[in-house]
């Protein structure tokens, strides 16, 4: 629990139980920042202490909680809000230069922020038994405060020499069957996230240039979880992601190494108008890129989609049932059909297409809906944590800002859980009565 410096003019009893300052209280009380504060105070040594480390840190957290887009915006709030200064432990508003020095110090201690994040994830996993069972993965575009690359490559603290152009394409199907496509381009960074899909809270993250591939960073996220939270990989049952993560190596790794069932949409990669492929070892069974398996009647040549019969874990195969047997339809060639008893489809036929949960099944569609959890987390980062309007330049600052925002999000949720307010875990902007 954080140590909150309180001046004689302030008392927590003055705060409305459902007011905005209540959210700051939750963060200050439940963020595990003692080790970082002790280290920063030791690093400062016996120099001037006009603005104590703890007070500067608390004010930085307040800036995140109250969505201030810049340090100047935060300083203006501190100038006019004596109660907030008292909560933070400040007698005077720190100068812009003081914040610059403090931010520089925090960037040098980025690993401590990551450790706080890891501790919060571990604590929430202990508090919530189902935390981490369903995971969702996605990336979020974050534009730099700079609008384009700088022609001057000399670092001076004002230019953004780390950002890169990123492109992300969204596709979907309307109710009338027509397709749509939206292409988003930006100059900046990507926040790559794995979140708990039920509670909509982050469990792993990385921050990269905007040009970084989602698939490549997806492997990095799994590496980070294996290193930092191996117990969560053992607990996880399903990982959902959009088609940007459609990669045979990633899907195989989820199941083969961790026993996690991947529910990841497929891209259409088959060329030359190829609609189906013959299933190896069969003469009248084909499959399409969406994972559907079809059989052809030996008598009439009519094609029917085979029914799902479940996954055989010990064999690594998907069972497909004869449609005549499953649906009771008439098949003139059933007597001589070589697959009248059904077929087994090994995942090894195509690890990108065949997964432990059959792609065309109702269960797959149900699990895939959990993917939207990470989209809602991304939306809260924009709306509740100010990433739609910020003044951040540089990868180090962006990593720090993302790490702090995610820590605040977890600390606030942990506070709700510990105070028996679990139904309000996602209340980040204003409390819900």
Tell me what portion of residues adopts beta-strand conformation.
Answer: 15-25%
Specify the CATH class of the largest domain. Answer: Alpha Beta
Query: Could you state the order of secondary-structure elements as H and E?
Result: HHHHHHHEEEEHHEHEEEEEEEHEHHH
Mean pLDDT: 87
Q: Tell me the count of domains.
A: 3
Structure, explained:
The chain has 433 residues and is α+β, with helices and mostly antiparallel strands. It has 3 domains: 20-108, no CATH class; 129-147 and 160-266 and 363-406, Ribonuclease H-like superfamily/Ribonuclease H (Nucleotidyltransferase, domain 5, 2-Layer Sandwich); 276-355, no CATH class. The protein is 38% helix and 19% strand. It has 14 helices and 13 strands. It has helices at 20-30, 34-44, 53-65, 71-80, 82-88, 96-108, 110-127, 214-228, 230-235, 248-258, 323-327, 362-368, 372-383, 395-418, and strands at 134-143, 164-173, 179-196, 201-209, 238-241, 261-264, 276-278, 285-288, 293-296, 303-305, 307-312, 317-321, 343-346. The strands form 3 sheets. Strands 1, 2, 3, 4, 5 and 6 form a 6-stranded mixed beta sheet that branches. Strands 7-8-9-10 form a 4-stranded antiparallel beta sheet, with no helix packed on it. It is elongated and about 90 Å long. Mean pLDDT is 87; it is low at 1-18 and 429-433.
């Amino acid at each position: 629990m954080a140590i909150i410096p309180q001046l004689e003019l302030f008392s927590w009893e003055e705060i409305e139980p459902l007011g905005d300052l209540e959210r700051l209280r939750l963060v200050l009380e439940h963020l595990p920042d003692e080790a970082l504060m002790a280290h920063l105070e030791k690093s400062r040594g016996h120099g001037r202490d006009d603005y104590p480390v703890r007070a500067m840190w608390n004010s930085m957290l307040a800036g995140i909680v109250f969505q201030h887009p810049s340090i100047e915006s935060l300083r203006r709030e501190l100038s006019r809000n004596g109660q907030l200064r008292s909560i933070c432990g400040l007698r005077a508003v720190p100068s812009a230069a003081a914040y610059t020095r403090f931010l520089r110090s925090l960037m040098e201690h980025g690993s401590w922020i990551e450790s706080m994040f890891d501790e919060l994830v571990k604590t929430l996993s202990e508090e919530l038994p189902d935390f981490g069972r369903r995971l969702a993965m996605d990336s979020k575009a974050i534009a730099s405060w700079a609008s384009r690359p700088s022609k001057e490559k000399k670092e001076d603290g004002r230019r953004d020499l780390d950002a890169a152009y990123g492109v992300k394409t969204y596709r979907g199907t309307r109710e009338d069957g027509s397709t749509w496509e939206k292409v988003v381009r930006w100059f900046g960074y990507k926040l790559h996230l794995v979140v708990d899909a039920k509670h909509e809270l982050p469990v792993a993250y990385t921050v990269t240039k905007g040009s970084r591939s989602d698939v490549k960073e997806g492997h990095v996220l799994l590496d980070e979880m294996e290193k930092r939270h191996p117990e969560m990989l053992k607990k996880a049952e399903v990982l959902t992601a959009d088609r940007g993560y459609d990669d045979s190596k990633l899907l195989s790794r989820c199941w083969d190494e961790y026993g996690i069932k991947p529910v990841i949409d497929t891209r259409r990669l088959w060329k030359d108008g190829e609609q189906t492929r013959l299933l190896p070892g069969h003469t009248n069974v084909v499959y399409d890129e969406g994972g559907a398996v079809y059989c052809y009647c030996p008598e009439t040549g009519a094609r029917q989609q085979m029914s799902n019969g479940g996954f055989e874990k010990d064999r690594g195969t998907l069972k497909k049932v004869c449609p005549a047997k499953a649906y009771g339809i008439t098949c003139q060639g059933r007597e001589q059909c070589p697959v009248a008893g059904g077929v087994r489809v090994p995942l090894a036929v195509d690890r990108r297409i065949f997964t432990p949960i059959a792609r065309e099944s109702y269960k797959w569609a149900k699990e895939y809906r959990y993917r939207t959890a990470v989209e809602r987390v991304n939306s809260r980062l924009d709306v509740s944590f100010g990433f739609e309007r910020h003044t951040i330049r540089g990868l180090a600052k962006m990593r720090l800002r993302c790490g702090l925002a995610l820590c605040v999000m977890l600390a606030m949720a942990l506070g709700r859980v510990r105070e028996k307010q679990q139904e309000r875990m996602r209340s980040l902007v204003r409390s819900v009565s």
